[in-house]
Write a structure and sequence with these properties.
Strand 4 (about 70-90) and strand 5 form a beta hairpin. Strands 1-2-3-5-4 form a 5-stranded mixed beta barrel. It has about 120 residues and is mostly beta strands. It has 1 helix and 5 strands, in the order βββαββ. The protein has one domain (about 10-110): OB fold (Dihydrolipoamide Acetyltransferase, E2P) (Beta Barrel). The radius of gyration is 17 Å and the shape is globular.
């Protein structure tokens, strides 16, 4: 196989209602939270939540516009790295940001906990 694979799969909760940009070519952006849970050595429950920035273009944009904060979603996407430099106090600092470009989005459950198939 000669093709490389750049595929990100995540299932998590939407952090805020989508804001629909006025420019139809601009992406709709979603912030998705994923959490991991475990027991520490002293039997306390530990949690780590990571946030993922997802950009939605094209026909998926109208579907994503109907999602709400708290909905649990399944997303397949392609990772894109955006790197830039900024001068801070006279020193150049390089920033690295990973954004995910959605290829597929499905609502798994609504905020109130109902399956999307209902």
């Amino acid at each position: 196989m000669r093709n490389d694979l750049n595929r990100f799969v995540v299932m998590g909760h939407i952090g805020s209602d989508p804001k629909i940009p006025s420019n139809p070519d601009a992406p709709l952006r979603l912030s998705i939270a994923t959490s991991a849970y475990w027991q520490s050595e002293d039997n306390k429950r530990q949690t780590r939540t990571d946030w993922h920035n997802v950009a939605v273009f094209g026909k998926l944009r109208s579907y994503a516009a109907n999602l709400k904060k708290g909905d649990r979603v399944y997303i397949e996407a392609q990772a894109r790295n955006n790197n830039h430099e900024r001068e801070i106090r006279g020193e150049k600092v390089k920033f690295y940001e990973t954004e995910f470009i959605a290829a597929q989005i499905e609502r798994v459950t609504e905020k109130n906990g109902e399956d999307s198939e209902s």
